[in-house]
Amino acid sequence: MRVLAIECSTDWLAVALGDADGFVERRERAGQAHSERVLPVVDALLDEAGLALSGLGGIAFGAGPGSFTGVRIACAVAQGLALGAGLPVVAVSTLEAIAEDASRQHGARRVYACADARMREVYVAAYERAGAHWREIVAPAVLKPADVEPPAGGWFGAGDGFAAHPEIAGRRAFTGIDAAILPSAASIGVIGRAHLMAGHGVKAAEARPIYVRQRVALTSAERAAGTRL
User: Fold this and answer.
1) By three-state DSSP, how is residue 187 classified?
2) Mean pLDDT score of the chain
3) Nearest by Cα to 59 from 211, 196, 209
4) Residue 189: what are its φ and ψ, rounded to 5°?
5) Which of 87, 128, 89 lies closest to 111 in space, CA to CA?
6) Phi then psi for 226, rounded to 5 degrees?
7) Is residue 184 a contact partner of residue 5, using CB atoms and an 8 Å limit?
8) Which terminus of the chain is less hemmed in, N or C, by CB atoms within 10 Å?
9) Residue 89: exposed, middle, or buried by beta-carbon count in 10 A (0-12, 13-18, 19+)?
10) Is the model more confident about 221 or about 111?
11) With pLDDT > 90 as the criterion, what percentage of the chain qualifies?
């Protein structure tokens, strides 16, 4: 099963296409231009592979937490493409994708994901590898850095929250930390494909972003400042 994956939850736009043999990813720093760039990147990736949307098994997207505008764009594009091609959709947590990237890059099996949420907050979650899947140990939450308390035990820290708030690294003896990891479209694709293979895809109209802040709308000033929900 070939899967298209879209990730727009950070300043980077990433699109990946792949199957059980791996994913090819295209990545660029889009800033505020995700909505203008995502479809051209999708089209280019499909053209390079010689594929049409109808030849795919489904579409996965980075559902957040992350940039409110970005996750809405990823969701809307996934919905639009899937609706036209009659494909199922899977919403993938960006924090779980960070765990997958930590596994792919460092072999980590227990990952404490910590992403910069701006507004002097971070998004956090903990995942443990269970076979080919991830088991959620700590559910996604948004916290002030002072309130972050990683679970006891050997955890690998991953995500730019460690770069934005380095004091978090001192809360536990992490087995390692990679503060440069951002959720990749390839990892969104790997996780999404597993869900699709298990029959967990939904109709396009049923796809939803993942919000962990109570507010799901921003003022124009907050949007201009790159605030995330």
Assistant:
1) helix
2) 93
3) 196
4) -65, -45
5) 128
6) 80, 25
7) no
8) N
9) buried
10) 111
11) 89
d(CA 43, CA 27): 14
Span 170-219, pLDDT tens digits: 988 999 999 999 999 999 999 999 999 999 999 999 999 999 976 444 44
Residues 105-134, mean pLDDT to the nearest whole number: 96
Check: CB of residue 109 under 8 Å from CB of residue 103.
Answer: yes
The arrangement of strands across the sheet holding 133-143 comes to 133-143, 121-130, 110-118, 156-158, 176-178
Report if pTM > 0.85: yes
Cα 104 to Cα 151: distance, rounded to the nearest angstrom: 22
The rounded distance, in Å, linking the Cα atoms of 122 and 197 is: 32
Residue 76 CB neighbour total at 10 angstroms: 16
Report whether pLDDT(223) > 50. Answer: no
In what order do the strands lie in the sheet containing 3-7? Answer: 22-29, 12-19, 3-7, 58-62, 89-92
Please name each of the domains of the chain with its CATH number. 3-93+183-224 (3.30.420.40), 94-178 (3.30.420.40)
**Angle ∠(107,108,111) on CA atoms, nearest 5:** 155
Angle at 37 between CA 35 and CA 39, to 5 degrees: 85
